[in-house]
Design brief:
disordered N terminus; Farnesyl Diphosphate Synthase; 2 strands; 75% helix; 339 residues
């Protein structure tokens, strides 16, 4: 019971624009939280202990809320969306466990990353366990289309992570390549979470595609803002250390934009720090200065705004309702949290 209360508190303290959406799906989210606890049980004590560390760490449950909201706006009356939303959360959590090992991140949502406490191998294996649980939940819905959507998203996410890994330190990366990476590693699950909610509700094709487009554009906007915050945000807001992308050699849009306007001296700085990963004290501060000099944060947020507008426009196929308003408000929040 205590574990459930901790989990519910972690998911049940919405702020600002998320509050409206949370209230509309609160009953369903309560069932999702209960199912998360049930399905992360194991006779191997380390599994629920490690999984619970990240699942209970205060995540907003944004992706499963999208599944619940999509099912609700399409008039769904069953219980299959509870399993789907739980599967979505397990996929997301598994990718976080794996990503933190690959990135050697020390913080996740403001707490020590799981691999820092238990080691790399347990973190990877528990991530595999959660992926397996997610597929069991998908099968239980009895929908091959849902299984296809979420299993494809899982593969695309992995491809995106490998693509990002292979481009680390490549200061010649284009904006198009960067957008392909974040479309795969972030937007794919947002899109699948939204689309699968419509599919389980047996919505028509137009509504399915509209919700998929909403999730896709929301996911890109969300990642663009995250990447901007890495050079301008507060550590408490991100739940990770400011400058992690810089230290890891990830070429995100703020750096790509600053590089595009760099003089020879600045280009050499980026080549040393990001290309060769030869970093010294003060380099992050200088990187932030160059990004500010070339207005790259503002440029990144302008891109995010365009995707937010597209996400909101995708909802026009639905009549006015509290849920449509909440989803639009959520998209607006993605950009506004950077200010």
């Amino acid at each position: 019971m205590r574990a459930f209360q901790r989990l519910t508190r972690g998911a049940g303290e919405p702020k600002g624009a998320i509050d409206r959406l949370f209230k509309l799906v609160e009953g369903d989210l309560h069932h999702v939280n209960a199912l998360i606890l049930e399905r992360m049980r194991s006779d191997v004590p380390l599994i629920p202990e490690l999984a619970g560390h990240i699942i209970n760490s205060g995540g907003k449950r944004l992706r499963p809320m999208l599944t619940l909201a999509a099912a609700q706006i399409c008039g769904y009356q069953g219980l299959g969306h509870i399993r789907l939303a739980t599967a979505v959360e397990f996929i997301h959590t598994a990718t976080l466990l794996h990503d933190d090992v690959v990135d050697e991140s020390e913080l996740r949502r403001g707490k020590a990353a799981s691999h820092v406490i238990w080691g790399n191998a347990p973190s990877v294996l528990v991530g595999d366990f959660l992926f397996s649980r997610s597929f069991q939940l998908m099968v239980e819905t009895g929908s091959l289309r849902v299984l296809n959507i979420l299993s494809n998203a899982s593969a695309v996410i992995a491809e995106g992570e490998v693509m990002q890994l292979s481009t680390r330190g490549n200061i010649g990366i284009s904006e198009d390549t960067y957008l392909k990476i974040i479309s795969a590693k972030t937007a794919a699950l947002f899109a699948a979470a939204s689309e699968s909610g419509a599919v389980i509700a047996q919505a028509d094709g137009l509504r399915e595609m509209s919700l998929k487009a909403y999730g896709h554009n929301l996911g890109i906007a969300f990642q663009l803002v995250d990447d901007a915050l890495d050079y301008s945000g507060r550590e408490a807001m991100m739940g990770k250390a400011v400058g992690d992308d810089f230290r890891e050699g990830k070429l995100t849009l703020p750096v790509i934009m600053a590089l595009a306007k760099a003089n020879a001296e600045e280009a050499e700085f980026w080549r040393r720090t990001m290309g060769h990963r030869s970093q010294m004290d003060g380099d992050l501060t200088h990187a932030i200065h160059l990004i500010d000099k070339h207005h790259a944060i503002a440029g990144t947020l302008l891109r995010a705004r365009s995707y937010t507008d597209q996400a909101c426009a995708a909802l026009n196929v639905f009549p006015e309702s509290p849920m449509r308003h909440a989803l639009s408000e959520l998209a607006e929040f993605c950009v506004s949290r950077a200010h």
